Amino acid sequence: MARAEVVSRKIISYFDIKGSTADELDASLNERGPLAMGSSSHHPGATKIRFGGNATYSESGGRCYISGVKVTVTTEIILPRWRDRRNASKQISMIWDTLAADIRRHENRHVEIARQHAEQMERQILALRPAANCDTLQERANAVTAQETERHDADQARFDRIEAINFQSRMQRLLYYRTRQNRPQ
C-alpha cells in the first residue's frame, strides 16, 4: 500500500495602511498593497502559493510503481492592517470592517483552491499505473504535476475574474446587511 500525504501550510502577513477617509484608505491600499504576480498594480490583498513535494518509487517484478506521495502547498496571505481607525468616523470604520472581511474571505478562498488542487495532484500521482521503469513513471508524475498546476492557475484566475465582476454588488449587499445589524432596535 502506497503512502500519501498532503501537507498544507498557511502564513498570514500584514502591510500597514493609513488614512481616516475612504479616499485616503483607497490611496494607501493602492500605494502600499502587494503586487500580484504578472501585475504592475497594487492589490488590497494577495496570496502567494508554492507547490512542492515528492514521490517515491519502488521496483518489484520488473515494474516500477509509486510507493509514496507527499504534496506540499505553502500559502502566504498578505492582508492590510489599518492604523488610523481612531481618527475615522463610525461609518468609515464600518465600511473598512466590511471590506477587510471580504478581502480576508477572498484570500482564504485562494488558499482553499490551492489545497484542493494539491489533494487532486496527490490522488492522480498515487493512481498512476506501474511502468516498465522508474524514469517513465517519474515522467508521468511530472506530467500530472504540470497539468494539475495549470488547472490550479486557471481556477485561481477564474475565481478572480468572477470576484471582480461581482465586487460592487457584493460590497453593497454586505454594507446593507451590516448597516441593518448595527441599527438600534
UniProtKB/TrEMBL annotation:
It holds the Pfam family DUF922. InterPro entries: DUF922. It comes from the Bacteria. This is DUF922 domain-containing protein. It comes from Rhizobium freirei PRF 81.
